[in-house]
TrEMBL record:
Protein name: Transcriptional activator protein LasR
Keywords: Activator, DNA-binding, Transcription, Transcription regulation
Top-level taxon of origin: Bacteria
Range of residues in the leader sequence: none
InterPro entries from the UniProt entry: Sig_transdc_resp-reg_C-effctor, TF_LuxR_autoind-bd_dom, TF_LuxR_autoind-bd_dom_sf, Tscrpt_reg_LuxR_C, WH-like_DNA-bd_sf
Database matches in Pfam families: Autoind_bind, GerE
Record organism: Serratia odorifera DSM 4582
């Protein structure tokens, strides 16, 4: 078990794309076919969740079109529960039967869903699944890799909370109209002197604005500030 902890602790994850790559690799290494990780910040609607998954696009389209998020037993369980839910334990009702039939058709027949709950009110779900012909494989995986699945859940939640916090900080950054102006002129190659002439101000004033922009995004260069401003939505080119 120490080896597993060391492996997971060594992951370098700087964004959700890298987190998706790690999840896909671990899912395959453990032996599952499908995965879905959905997480949202405190007070956010579940429909605003960040979702990482390798589920078939046709299934995701069907899920959205038919509003299955409202009848999906795994979502209901994970929003309110603390313990993992093995799908075979879910009772089949008239309301949930269409959901399970469609899921199985698209290769999500056997699986387990882990609730994700952060100390600041973050919530989400981690689901791992296998196809219809792999029921025996599922039982073996649950017996042999149960401990590792808990570690995977914890490390994913840790990184999700950190990445959501960074995303929220970026989103909260607001640039003034003049700061947006100097950024836009800078992106098309204008120098400090040229920007000062265009905006009819001093070079010191232009430098002052860039200093504030770098401070807001906690970076040391103008280029890095521009990248973060675009990523946060504060700047549109």
């Amino acid at each position: 078990m120490n080896e597993i902890y060391n492996r997971y602790a060594s992951f370098r994850i700087d964004n959700f794309s890298q987190l998706d790559e790690v999840l896909a690799e671990r899912c395959q290494a453990i032996g599952f076919d499908g995965y879905l990780l959905g997480v949202t910040g405190h007070g956010r609607d579940i429909n605003q969740a960040v979702v990482l998954t390798n589920h078939p696009p046709a299934w995701r389209e069907t899920y959205t079109r038919l509003g299955y998020i409202n009848t999906d037993p795994t979502v209901a369980h994970c929003l309110g529960g603390l313990f993992p839910l093995e799908w075979q334990a879910c009772p089949i009702t008239a309301e949930t039967a269409p959901f399970w039939q469609e899921a199985s058709y698209y290769g999500l027949a056997h699986g387990v869903s882990f609730p994700l709950h952060g100390v600041q009110g973050e919530q989400g779900i981690l689901s791992l699944s296998l196809g219809r012909q792999r029921q025996r494989d599922y039982r073996e995986l649950m017996q042999q890799r149960w401990g590792e699945l808990y570690i995977l859940r914890d490390i994913l939640l840790h990184h999700c909370i950190r990445l959501l916090d960074e995303k929220n900080k970026l989103t909260a950054t607001v640039l003034s109209p003049r700061e947006i102006e100097v950024c836009k002129w800078f992106t098309i190659g204008k120098t400090t002197w040229e920007i000062s002439r265009i905006l009819n101000c001093s070079e010191a004033n232009v430098n002052f604005h860039f200093k504030n922009i770098r401070r807001k995004f906690n970076v040391s260069s103008r280029g890095a500030a521009i990248i973060k401003a675009i990523a946060s939505g504060s700047l549109t080119l």
